From TrEMBL:
The keyword Transferase does not apply. PANTHER family: DNA-INVERTASE FROM LAMBDOID PROPHAGE, SERINE RECOMBINASE PINE-RELATED. Coiled coil: none annotated. PROSITE patterns: RECOMBINASES_3. Pfam families: Resolvase. InterPro entries: Resolv_N, Resolvase-like_N_sf, SSR_resolvase. Keywords: DNA recombination, DNA-binding. Residues 10-149 form the Resolvase/invertase-type recombinase catalytic domain. SMART domains: Resolvase. This is Resolvase/invertase-type recombinase catalytic domain-containing protein. One of its GO terms (molecular function) is DNA binding.
Amino acid sequence: MTHHYQARMRAALYIREEFGPSSSVEAQQAALRDFVQQHHPGWRIVGTYYDTTPGNEALSRRPGLRSALRAATAGEFDVLIAPELNRINRRMDYFSDLAQKFDAVSVALLTADSMIDTTTPVGRLLITILASVTTYERLPEQERAAREA
């Protein structure tokens, strides 16, 4: 990854639908557009990708994320922005693989909630730590579901 954020970058938005009024695709998209306008006014939003599948699903079951990766590979954008890390993926192994795929085509990942930036070594470290925490957070839910089954 060679670029730390430049004044004029092409950004793509990634949204994973959740339930609730503030988590709708439209609400997330509006919030991300506001984020870009407020924090990176020179950036141009060139696409929006979204999924309706759960956050712990593999890339093979996330058509929106697959489309974003294809567009990134084709050089259509420089940075993929998601509202939160857990919108990209809740599983560390899936997230790590995905982050490597975007890194291989020099596309940065950015989360609006924490403004973590994978173009820097510190950003890569922090996003790895947060992905691990996200994985850990879902373990009690899985254990509870197993006990109730």
